[in-house]
Amino acid sequence: MKLGPGYAAHGRDVDAEPLQYGRDHNLPRLAPEQRRRVTLARQDVLKPGGPSPDLILAQNFSYFALKKRETLKAYFVNCRKSLRPGGVLALDIFGGAGTHKRGVERTDHRDFVFYWEQYGFDPVTHEARCAIHFKPKGRRKVKDVFVCDWRLWTIPEIRDLLREAGFRASHVYWEGGGAVESTWIAMIAAEK
Ligand SMILES: C[S@@+](CC[C@H](N)C(=O)[O-])C[C@H]1O[C@@H](n2cnc3c(N)ncnc32)[C@H](O)[C@@H]1O
Questions:
Q1: Is the CB of residue 133 less than 8 Å from the CB of residue 155?
Q2: How many independent structural domains does the chain possess?
Q3: Per-residue pLDDT tens for 180-191?
Q4: Cβ(12) to ligand 1 under 6 A?
Q5: What is the overall mean pLDDT for the chain?
Q6: Residues 173 and 130 in one domain
Q7: Sheet with 55-58, side-by-side order of all strands
Q8: Residues 49-61: tens digit of each pLDDT
Q9: Are 141 and 176 in a shared domain?
Q10: Are residues 31 and 102 in the same domain?
Q11: What distances in angstroms separate CA 25 from CA 30, 68, 142, one per listed residue?
Q12: What's the CA gap between 93 and 100, in Å, rounded?
């Protein structure tokens, strides 16, 4: 939004709560003129319709909620149809040996501790339940503030599906050097 008056952003979610969070916490940080160029709407991204953007950002691993191959492919087809010619679909993805087992990661912040916990991993279905807990300073830990029931997709599966959905190319952007850490995060960009 800060790039200039010719830019617009459209946020979509089936759930009203994250949309309201954005209205309450993120939109106020923009100037009124910038805010007018943002629309937030409750929409199932598997249904056709909506804007025709240059860039679709499916971030925070949201598409991991789409567990079936045909459902994820339908989503990618929908994205490709929505995009303008030459447009890009950008997806973040995580994986690695560390995501194939139970585990908890702790990150200390000034006023709170953040926990990312994976409750398990099913090697047959590649499904996992992950949760976020918080421990505010001086207060007790609040567990399961967010719980995700996910299919842990792999990079080659996603690239195959993007190709089948009609994207002409996909590129993987790797964070850091060549070493594969026990848990990694990468970006996949698919060109219409
Ligand atoms: C990991 S959260 C990310 C929330 C938020 N977009 C963010 O980045 O912080 C995944 C979101 O995907 C939404 N979602 C799942 N299936 C969806 C669908 N078919 N259409 C639109 N949103 C969907 C969920 O309601 C949930 O808010």
A1: no
A2: 2
A3: 668 889 999 999
A4: yes
A5: 94
A6: no
A7: 55-58, 88-95, 184-191, 169-174
A8: 888 999 999 999 9
A9: no
A10: no
A11: 10, 33, 21
A12: 14
In one letter, which amino acid is 86? G
In contact, 118 and 103? CB cutoff 8 Å: yes
Q: Which atom of ligand 1 is nearest to the CA of 46?
A: 19
Q: What is the pTM of this model?
A: 0.92
DSSP at 137: T
Ligand 1 centroid distance, CA of 54 (Å)? 20
Ligand 1 centre to CA of 110 (Å) is: 28
Identify whether residues 39 and 13 lie together within a single domain. yes
Ligand 1 center to 113 CA (angstroms): 24
Tell the burial category of 102 from Cβ atoms under 10 Å away from its Cβ (0-12, 13-18, 19+).
exposed
Q: What is the DSSP letter of 122?
A: B
Ligand 1 and 180: CB distance under 6 A: no
Helices within 32-167 (DSSP H only): 32-35, 69-82, 155-164
Residues 182 and 111 in one domain: no
Q: Six-digit token pair at 103?
A: 């585990």
Residue 2 domain-assigned (yes or no): no
Q: Which of ligand 1's atoms lies nearest the C-alpha of 11?
A: 6
Tell how far the Cα of 105 is from the centroid of ligand 1, in angstroms.
Answer: 23
